[in-house]
Structure formats: C-alpha cells, structure tokens
Design brief:
alpha+beta
Length: 370
C-alpha cells in the first residue's frame, strides 16, 4: 500500500485564448462535451484560463451533492478544456497502468476512502491534496494487466447484452409506428378522445397498505429510457402526497427532466407525488398502447414545450388531461400489446443475464480492490 500522490502529478496547463479547445465536463458516465451533456454550453463565454486536459489525463468535479466523486480519464478526444475548479492530473510513475488506476477510481474501496477526506456541509469538496493521500495497492504490472483484462471482458459482455436490449426496444417502437403512426398527427385517422376521459388520473386519497407491506415507488427507482423498475422497496406507512396504482394503470412522471419515465406496473403499489397514475379501461385503451404513445418522441417534444417552472419544470396538467389521443380499434391495440408482452419476455431474459454479469463485476471489483 502507498499514497496515491506517489504515482500521480497535477497538471496546470491553461488556455491563453478564448474557446481554444472544446469545453468538456466530467460526469458519472465519463468525460463528455459540455454542450452535449447540458444541450448547451453553460461555461462562461470567456474561458481564458480554463484548464487544458489532454488524452490520457484524469479530471473530476471537485464538488459533489451526493457524496460520490467520479474521476475520469480522457480517452475519446485528443484535447479539451474544463473549468478551473476541476483538478487535472496524470500518471507520473511507470509502476501503474492508467487502465488499472481508472478501475481503482470506480471501486467501492476508493469511494469509502474519499468519503472520509471530502469536506463541506451541504456540498462536499474533494481537493487534489486530499486525493493524493488516498491509499492504493500497487500490485505487479502483470497482475494489473490480468485485472484489467478480466474486468474488461465482463464489461464487454454487459455491453453486448445491453445492445440486445436496445434492439428489442427499437423493435417495439418500430411496430408502434407501423401500426399507429405519429400520435400527434393521427396519420391513420383514428377516433380522437381526451386523455383524461380514456385513462382517468387517480386520486391520492384512496391509497392503502396491503398486508402491512406495500410497494412504494419514486422517480429514482425508474430507468429513464425504458421505464424499467430498477429496485423495489416495501413500506408500511403512507405519506400525505401519494398516488396508488395497480395492474390496470400506467404511471407517468410529471417532472420534465424525466421525459421518458413511463411505467407499466406489475402489482399494486403506492407512488410519490412526482408520478401520475392513469387507470386504463382495456375495452377502450390498452396499457401498452398508452405507455408507448406517452414515450413517443413527438409526444415527448409536445409536452416538453408545455412545461412550466424555472428550477424544476413540471408538466402542465391541463395540457396533459386535454391531450387529444388517437384511439385505434381495440383489436389493433391488443395485437400491439401481445407483441410487447412477447418482446418483454425476451427483455426479461436479457436483463437477468445483465444482472448476473453485474453481480460478477461487483464481486471481482471487491476482490481486486478491497
């Protein structure tokens, strides 16, 4: 074991002219273009004095609201610039592989160490000088290569399965477009009805706890793009602002950063007030048809244009209730629902394989870095 500062060196190369290189940001998913991450450049238009980061070097946001810090290595670009508040550093020893160091930064062992070194009350800060004092086990180069190879093989297996998942998701979207077209344009001339008359929004007054053990759902438990439930927690208590749902409902997020959070629940439960519960009459509208209409790009863009609120934009409930929803023949909707259910079985099998690979990944990371 040794101090990380023995193997790394801070870099303080700075820009001398405005927009000298592309502005980057360091996120949980890696180092990306700031414009892509925020859909706009949020940095000052005057970025003289920003730090330059070159391919192979590391950086991170020195402030955190969650207590976790994600230290990333620039691998997909030759050069870029980051905020002066971002520490930038490079490897200064041939005893450590950059890929091995990247894995170390992803380990729970590393996060556990820096949780004791970060400072601040509301937002935690991790100074570079504190990072240098983190303990790291520098094993032999041959062992490092073996560790990197093993972890990479597991990650590649996960990527293959996630690609399969994406293909299956695209199959459903393609089938929806083929059968129903654009829900805003109503290309096939289906009957039109207001959404609130097709799938009434549930009241918050009737929620109950079943057998003292009811599923409680909030936004953080829902995967953004697919509406898949990431985790389930049980509760014996209900807050004042809740909605209830069951297997006749579709859940929809009213907060706009979560445009595609649409859920088809598989059992009774209670949701927090960030969610809207719509109860479907299957003789008129199926849950699968409603859910994929709400996920359709044109609907997302439409409802996004109607949102209000500065800090946390919310769906305009009147616009949502009065949305004119095309209603295809029930037989056509049921054909689509049957197709979705078949694909969901395949997706379930893929998800099980992903979870097994992730369990193996966690096991190996703990074995190598704990």
């Amino acid at each position: 074991m040794g101090k990380l500062g023995l193997y790394i060196e801070e870099v303080n190369e700075k820009t001398t002219q405005n927009n000298q290189y592309e502005v980057l940001t360091s996120s949980q998913g890696g180092i990306v273009s700031q414009e892509d991450y925020f859909n706009k450049q949020v940095a000052s238009t005057d970025n003289i004095g920003y730090k330059i980061i070159r391919k192979g070097q590391f950086t991170y946001r020195s402030m955190s609201d969650t207590g976790k810090f994600y230290i990333n290595r620039l691998t997909n670009k030759e050069v870029g610039i980051v905020s002066p508040a971002y520490p930038v550093f490079k490897i200064a020893s041939d005893k450590i592989m950059p890929e091995y160091l990247s894995l170390f930064f992803q380990s729970e062992y590393f996060q556990g160490q820096i949780s004791n070194k970060a400072s601040g009350s509301t937002r935690l800060a991790l100074r570079y000088s504190k990072l240098e004092n983190v303990e790291i086990d520098i094993t032999a180069k041959e062992k490092q290569e073996e560790i990197v190879k093993n972890i990479d093989s597991i990650k590649k297996a996960i990527e293959v399965e996630e690609k399969e998942q994406s293909i299956l998701d695209e199959l459903i979207k393609s089938r929806f477009n083929k059968l129903f077209g654009d829900p805003l344009l109503n290309e096939y001339g289906f009957e039109i009805k207001e959404l609130s008359k097709l799938a009434p929004f549930n009241s918050v007054k009737n929620a109950i706890v079943v057998n003292n053990n009811t599923w409680l759902l909030n936004l953080d438990m829902i995967e953004s793009d697919t509406g898949r439930i990431i985790e389930k927690i049980r509760t014996s208590e209900i807050g004042d602002s809740t909605i209830e749902f069951d297997t006749t409902c579709v859940l929809y997020s009213k907060l706009r950063p979560y445009l595609n959070k649409v859920v088809i629940p598989d059992e009774y439960g209670i949701g927090t007030s960030e969610l809207i519960s719509m109860r479907c009459d299957s003789k008129i509208i199926t849950r699968e048809y409603l859910a994929y209409s709400l996920r359709h790009k044109s609907f997302v863009n439409y409802i996004n244009s109607k949102t209000g609120g500065a800090k946390m934009p919310r769906t305009n409930m009147n616009d949502l209730r009065s949305f004119k929803m095309p209603i295809p023949p029930t037989e056509l909707q049921e054909r689509f629902s049957s197709f979705v259910n078949q694909i969901d079985k395949l997706k379930f099998n893929v998800q099980q394989r992903i979870e097994k690979y992730k369990e193996l990944l966690d096991k190996k990371m703990n074995e190598y870095f704990n």
